[in-house]
């Protein structure tokens, strides 16, 4: 009975171990069978079967060569499973396999402490026999078997909990799963796992020694190791977790630094451009006003003469007046910088999308606006770039599709809200760890930072950014406090 129970327990543990493997690999690697819902189940079952077969072919022993051979075979088995079921020809695959082995071994040795803690139960049962509380040999054997089985069940439960919790933590902290690691970066995050794995292999080699023909556990010979070994294993596990967190923070900081440099250049360039455009348009408005008055006087004077003699002059002056009307800025939002930006972006857009509809009637800014014009320009400029690109892609896929961009704003208390809505092809590429949609352009480092720049600009005014998708309509919402920048 107990033999059958132990075999069932081994099968369940092997399948559970396989489940953790497919959970871990599936979080980082793309499946070779994306349409197959059972890919993870295949990995779990196959790993469990191979693990049981490996244990049958190479039974657990205490010889160093056997232990090392078994670990090497397990390593190649994991790599083979990753390559067969996932698109795993990446440097990160090495990290995943080694880390999985290290975390599994560390979790096992930590869970093994349950056996050591439960050894006192056997002394208790022996004492009960000596006191006469247990008189039947059959009952004593039954109690011993129950105790052993119960301890193994608890040990494997602890093993599974530690393993799953650690893998889940790694999955959560490793945010940049698409990041292409360099060799130095791979060595940086691989080293803690390698150290942990080698420590566990060393423990397997020295855990059992033979003295005078009897096997002795290392813990029996050196009881202090019952405290030292778990501490070393816990520190090793923490080093794996913290190295991953540190690596991800480094990626984030480098990306923020690059984004900030680009943003600062954009801001500087836009400040100069907007200042110049504001000066030019201010002069044009003044000149247009004076010229229209002058033209009106000339037309009045020309009208007083013979109409036949002045027909050509009347026509010329009328055309000149229409030309002056075309100098009128198309968009009027109450902010000169925004008007200029909208005009510039609109003319850029209609060259690519002639029938583009841009509605800005509800985009108005109060006279008491305290937000810097170039910050508004950063927000609207990046938002319009994204919207125009989305409309261009939609038009490329569906030439008859309606393309539009609608901009609106309103004020509520001290808050300014802006909303940019545009049509798009309905295809949103988003990774679960990403806050914003991911660009589909090849150079992801140079592109795909528009929404991040908008978020950074809004953050200066204690604001935020949100986005939503409804069928084939993308909506970007930006909230800012109508106040001077927080760093001023």
TrEMBL record:
Domain of life (superkingdom): Bacteria
Protein's UniProt name: Sensor histidine kinase
Segments traversing the membrane: 12-29, 41-62, 68-86, 93-115, 142-165, 186-207, 227-247
InterPro entries listed in its UniProt record: HATPase_C_sf, NatK-like_C
Annotated keywords: Kinase, Membrane, Transferase, Transmembrane, Transmembrane helix
One MF annotation (Gene Ontology) recorded for this entry: kinase activity
Domain Sensor histidine kinase NatK-like C-terminal, chain residue ranges per copy: 373-481
Pfam families (alphabetical): HATPase_c_5 (PF14501)
Natural source organism: Waltera intestinalis
């Amino acid at each position: 009975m107990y033999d059958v129970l132990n075999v069932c327990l081994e099968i369940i543990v092997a399948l559970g171990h396989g489940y953790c493997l497919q959970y871990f690999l599936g979080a980082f690697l793309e499946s070779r069978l994306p349409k197959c819902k059972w890919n993870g189940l295949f990995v779990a079952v196959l790993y469990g079967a191979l693990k049981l077969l490996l244990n049958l072919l190479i039974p657990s022993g205490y010889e160093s060569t056997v232990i090392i051979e078994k670990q090497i075979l397990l390593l190649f088995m994991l790599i083979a499973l990753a390559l067969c079921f996932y698109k795993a020809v990446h440097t990160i695959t090495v990290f995943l396999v080694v880390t999985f082995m290290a975390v599994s071994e560390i979790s096992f040795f930590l869970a093994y402490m349950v056996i050591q803690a439960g050894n006192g139960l056997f002394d208790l049962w022996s004492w009960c026999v000596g006191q006469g509380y247990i008189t039947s040999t059959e009952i004593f054997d039954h109690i011993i078997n129950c105790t052993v089985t119960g301890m193994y069940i608890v040990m494997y439960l602890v093993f599974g909990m530690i393993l799953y919790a650690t893998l889940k933590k790694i999955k959560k902290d490793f945010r940049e799963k698409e990041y292409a690691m360099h060799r130095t970066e791979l060595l940086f995050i691989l080293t803690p796992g390698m150290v942990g794995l080698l420590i566990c292999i060393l423990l397997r080699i020295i855990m059992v020694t033979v003295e005078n023909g009897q096997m002795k556990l290392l813990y029996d010979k050196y009881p202090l190791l019952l405290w030292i070994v778990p501490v070393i294993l816990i520190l090793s596990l923490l080093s794996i977790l913290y190295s991953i967190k540190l690596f991800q923070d480094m990626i984030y900081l480098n990306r923020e630094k690059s984004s900030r440099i680009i943003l600062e250049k954009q801001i500087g360039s836009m400040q100069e451009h907007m200042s110049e455009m504001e000066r030019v348009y201010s002069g044009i408005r003044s000149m247009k006003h004076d010229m229209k008055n002058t033209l009106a006087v000339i037309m009045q004077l020309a009208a007083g003469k013979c109409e036949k003699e002045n027909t050509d002059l009347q026509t010329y002056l009328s055309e000149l007046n229409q030309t002056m009307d075309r100098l009128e800025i198309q968009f009027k939002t109450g902010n000169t910088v925004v008007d200029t930006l909208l005009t510039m972006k609109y003319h850029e857009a209609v060259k690519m999308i002639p029938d583009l509809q841009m509605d800005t009637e509800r985009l108005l800014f109060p006279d008491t606006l305290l937000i810097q014009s170039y910050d508004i320009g950063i927000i609207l400029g990046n938002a319009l770039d994204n919207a125009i690109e989305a409309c261009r892609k939609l038009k490329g896929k569906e030439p008859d599709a309606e393309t539009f961009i609608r901009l609106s704003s309103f004020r509520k208390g001290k808050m300014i809200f802006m909303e940019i809505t545009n049509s798009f092809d309905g295809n949103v590429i988003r990774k679960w760890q990403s806050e914003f949609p991911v660009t589909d352009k090849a150079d992801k480092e140079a592109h795909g930072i528009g929404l991040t720049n908008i978020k950074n600009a809004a953050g200066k005014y204690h604001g935020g950014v949100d986005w939503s998708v409804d069928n084939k309509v993308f909506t970007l919402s930006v909230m800012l406090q109508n106040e001077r920048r927080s760093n001023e």
